[in-house]
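Request: Show me your protein:
***
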Amino acid sequence: MTPEAADWVLSHIGFTLAVYAVLRTPRPATDADEFTALNVDDNRHLLGAPDPDQDTGIRKALSALAERRRADARQVEHNRVHILGRDPVPPICIGHTAPDTYIVHVRCSCPQVEGLAAHFEHVSQAAADWLDEIPTTPWKFCPTSPTRVTGPSGSGRLTRTLRNAEGAAVVELQHADGHREAVALAEVSDLD
C-alpha cells in the first residue's frame, strides 16, 4: 500500500496520527527531575501526572490515553442507545468460522461477525467464559481489532495468538525494548 493510500484509509476511518514528547523538567526544591508526556501535535496538553521515574511517567500518559479512549467508547455507546435508539452491543464479540477457528472481535469495524457465538464486556471474560472452554480450538483476533496489548508487566505490540500447554488462550506481545512476553488472555487488562 502506498503512503498516500494508507493516509486515505486512516483518515477515512477517523484515525489521527499523533506525536508525543517526554519532557524532563528539573525540580530545584528536591534536586530531582520529573518526566511528563506532552501531545505536541495540536493543543500541547499534558498526559498523566509528572513522575520522577521516566518509565512511570510514560505509563501514566498511556493510561490517560487509554482512559480517554474508554470515555470516547462510552460516549459512542451512549449515542448508539439514547440517540439512535439501537440496542447496546458489548465491545467483544466471538465468531466461529468454518475451519473451526474462533475469531475475537475487539471494538472492531467489522460490519457483522461471521458465526456470532457470544458477546462479552472484556477480553478476560471472553477467555475465561468461552475461549478456554475448548482448549484445542485455534483462535485469533480479527484484522481490525486493536494490536496494542496491556498486561500485568506493561504494554506492547501484539505479535501472535496461541494456546499454552494447558490450552489457555495466550497473546504474545513485544515490548518497546524488544523483548517478547506471552500473557494469558485472561490476564490482559486492555487492548487499544
Q: What stands out?
A: The mean pLDDT is 80. The first helix runs from residue 3 to 12.
